[in-house]
Specification:
- The protein is an alpha/beta fold and 326 residues long.
- It is built from ten helices and 15 strands.
- It has two domains: 168 residues, Quinone Oxidoreductase, Chain A, domain 1 (Alpha-Beta Complex); 129 residues, NAD(P)-binding Rossmann-like Domain (Rossmann fold, 3-Layer(aba) Sandwich), CATH 3.40.50.720.
- The protein is 29% helix and 27% strand.
- The longest helix is centred in the middle third of the chain and has 13 residues.
- The protein is globular.
- The structure holds NADP nicotinamide-adenine-dinucleotide phosphate.
- NADP nicotinamide-adenine-dinucleotide phosphate (NAP) binds next to helix 1, helix 5 and strand 9.
Length: 326
Amino acid sequence: MKAIVCTAYGGPDVLLLEEVEKPRPQAGEVLVRVHATTASRADCEIRRFEFPAWIWLPIRLAFGVFKPRVRILGQEFAGEVESLGDGATAFAPGDRVYGTTGIGLGAYAEYVCVGGRRGGSVVAPMPAAMRYAEAAAVPYGAMEALRFLRKGGIDAGQRVLIIGAGGSFGTYAVQLAKHAGAEVVAVDSAGKLEMLRELGADQVIDYAEQDFADGAGDFDIVFDVICQAPFGRVARLLRPGGRYVLANPKTSHFFRGLWTSLTGDTKVIFGSGAARDEHLRAVTELVEASELRPVIDREYPFEQMAEAHRYADTEQKKGNIVIVVD
Ligand SMILES: NC(=O)c1ccc[n+]([C@@H]2O[C@H](COP(=O)([O-])OP(=O)(O)OC[C@H]3O[C@@H](n4cnc5c(N)ncnc54)[C@H](OP(=O)(O)O)[C@@H]3O)[C@@H](O)[C@H]2O)c1
């Protein structure tokens, strides 16, 4: 089968189209013929190997010390069930499914195995009316936004600040927080603010023009996707008992967050735990009820994966970048 192989850690040109062995589903696994995947920020971070110091070593050991051991990136897929491993009964060949691959990655290929013992992989029937290219942009961002906001205790009537709202996590977080009945203030660059208003944000802030951390914020939850602003400046925007949810904490955020959780009345949340099929099913219901939709900036053909990553590296994307595999 064809796959995009990550031949070294580095820029987009390390991604090469190669012929590799087609995977075979093990017990409990589902072999999916991939129709679409995405070029996410997290894929780019793995390709560049750019991680904060406090998690650098464990991730390097997991992904390969000198060069990538996990050679096929890609965390989201939408496609068709091709075949099933022993004991996999939830799906049948031909079913239209979508999901995330978990720590094994592998969606940058014509086929990927998910389910069974593949750590962190999640697979569910995809929303009935969606194209594969739309569906591929849903699972990772929507599930993570859902799980982070739930951990933050999202509820009706709360004030929620979302920093880095215009990307994959953020565009879903804005919609999910509004769906929960919260008041949403969304922070991102100027070109994304109109889109954020359309997604339901009550107030939008261009971080280049206005210091969102200046003054009292009075927020119940701050969901910081990007974690560029200093911990203390953002934490003080929370009401007593508020939750500071960080998707991409730097080393200083991590240690200050631990200390604050232990000693203060702000709860600091770093991770969203293990994704499960039920999370994706919850997302699917919201999509089918038109309560949630993917924002897709660009679509690229499979052969132009390096080009898609080059665009993702600019960090200008609105929402998601989709790769059409077939
Ligand atoms: N902790 C966990 O368990 C966990 C799990 C999965 C993923 N993650 C991490 O979570 C992150 C997910 O990000 P994503 O996919 O949503 O990224 P994304 O699509 O790149 O979105 C990030 C957004 O932040 C904006 N931005 C950049 N600098 C900013 C600033 N200073 N202030 C406000 N906004 C700013 C960017 O826009 P402009 O560039 O135009 O400004 C962009 O719209 C990744 O880093 C991933 O590794 C964490």
